[in-house]
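Box S2. Input/output pair 1.
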Amino acid sequence: IKTRETNVKGYLFISIVLVQIKELIRGLRKDKITKLLAKAIKNVKKRYLLILKEIVAT
């Protein structure tokens, strides 16, 4: 992202997959994982927006 990549799809995909893998390993049920995936998406959005703002400011 910090290398001026503006396409968030890859970063978002990796973030979601990592959350899903971690929670499946922990033994969390699939219905509970859905809520965590939604939270991960929101977190990616927040992080990505902050980084984009930093890039624009420089």
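Box S3. Input/output pair 2.
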Amino acid sequence: MAKIPAFVIDYFLLGKTRRGAIERFTQDGGVVSDVWLAFANDREEPQRVLVAPSKNSSAVEVGYALHRAIAGYRSRLADPLKPGDPPLKVRERPMVSPLENFVAVTLYFDELIRLILPLTCWWHEKHLNALRRTAMYSGRKLDDRLERAIVSKLQEQENEVAVRSGIVGTDDQLAQRRVMEAAPLAALIGLFMIADDPDMTSLDGLAGIDPRSHDGEKAFHEWIQSNAEYIARAAREELSRPFDPSLLPGHDQGLTVQSAMYSSSSSASAGKSPEPPEMIQRVFRDRESTLADDEGNCTVKADAATRVFDISCRNVTWAIIDSGIAARHPAFIDHDAPVKPVLPGQLPEKPPSRVRQTLDFTRIDRIRNFDLISGDDGSVERNGIIEEIINALEILPGREPSPTFRADAKRNLEAIARQLEQRIPPDWNLIEPLIQLGNNDDGASLLSDHGTHVAGILGADWRSETPAPDGTKPVMLQGVCPDINLYDLRVIDRQSVRSTEFAVLAALEYVQFVNARAASNGPILHGVNISMSIPHDVRNYGCGATPICVACDRLVGAGVVVVAAAGNRGWNELELGFGN
């Protein structure tokens, strides 16, 4: 299976497939370019993506619909197999995991095209449902017009003018114009289709082209000219396929009642056959994040501010979203806590830590997961999945042994499964006990000390064990706010030393939940620190429009201060290409 070079994806999405085209930096379509780039590199491997619901749908409704649709689609893939046919490659679990505002799901390329795209706002805005209608306005006429529009987009501008002029005076001009507007992304889909064609060998020639050179750009445009009709025909065949039955309202209850009523009523009023509803705003890649670092106290003159103004942060609590904090490190002792009297024969208690709570979000996509409803309530299949999740939660670093944990976790996971069946949004009251760890972590089980370091920059107050002559303990090291309280929100996977954007999003949603639960008593968490680095291509997103940016803005709107690192890489065009 030939790889598609990254520059080819960019050229198709940004309209540079034609000589002399004006370069632009915006793209149309419900799927951001880093998802296309990931599949261009390997179309046999699945990708973990984040799905943002449309304004008419909730994340849990979208997650339920995708869970049913993927299960139905995969079962139908196996149906045509005959005796003697090679078995289908076993696909990874989709792991459909909804939060309040996003859904994480593991998809294969054909599932992205056949299940996700028909549910996007982009698909409906471009009237692409019309391509698959056969009863009323001839879908074949629209198919033909789309094919010619793709060819015109890939070739000379005069051809596009001729195609557009042919629309004037025809019935349903708006639908035809919208279908034509979909031509650039449709062409990209056609490119992916021919790349998977075993008879297509000329794609290999693109790998050696340097688009920055005059000869390379000329060779690319010559390749486009010679393959434009093939690409257009492949796109037409793929986009004109009948909808998968699991996308249609009422099929196996895959779509929610609200979405099914919306789709059925709009189709019935226009005399059309049932069509997929509009449920998805955009599809992002669930990007990996790595640890980022920063310098300390004197650099920002925090020591001077403390001396001059006698600042205290004792009543302030900050969440550290990172790899984990060694709560029992002497730098986080609460020196102002009252000392309990020691009775004769007793050992003095260890002083309390200012790390008030520790929660691990690295398995959140296993907890809030539609795999839990694969079997009926109480079935062997469901109980097996629940036991699998409990086993993973029980060995989280920092988990304190508890004789009741397994029973409590089983009860909560059974309740979460019932919530998912009813499409109820996440209930953090059930999730919180599953990911809550003890506050006695000495750091030995942490794979990285990055979280402890970052927490120390903010709130360390490390004092010598040997008292000075006046009885006080000399300060060895202090952070910016040496008496601040901390929440340890862990998002870095112990095995890969990486996180996913989904885990960070879950931690941010949890912060909002904690403050909402406190209600009139005031916020529990006043701020959040995210010292992480996520490689970012500026062409994939508008400024501040990544999923994590949107989540941070939402948290700021709720009155929480969010501090994020700028990353370690800077403008890294040499390694990652333009715009990184």
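Caption for Box S3: The chain has three domains: 6-19+26-285, 288-362+438-576, 369-425. Confidence is low (pLDDT under 50) at residues 135-139, 257-262, 264-271.
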